[in-house]
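As promised in the previous annual report, we have extended the structural survey to additional targets. Below is the entry for 4-aminobutyrate aminotransferase.
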Amino acid sequence: MHEQIKLELTERSTRQHQRSREQYPGLLSRARGQGTFCAVDICDDPTRSKILLMARDKGVLLGGCGERSIRFRPALIFKEYHVALFLNIFNDVLAQLK
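The corresponding structure token record, generated without further manual editing, is:
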């Protein structure tokens, strides 16, 4: 059961990351992940820093990695409604930068 939930969450997150890449082509690229661990590249370091701060101000903790990647590493307890919360906040942040 746990593996099925994890798989569904991964598929939903991956689909949404793909849609976000299409919606913000100059901002996001190379979405990737395995399980609930996901990452996406941002166009540049200053923009990535803005996204990290804006997401944090909205209650979402993301991590920077390398020169321009954002990592998403959810808490141990992470359910489907958490995916929706995260994606809504992340898309709000991206829309503010568009």
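The chain has one domain: 2-97. DSSP finds three helices and four strands in the chain. These points will be discussed at the next consortium meeting with the crystallography subgroup.
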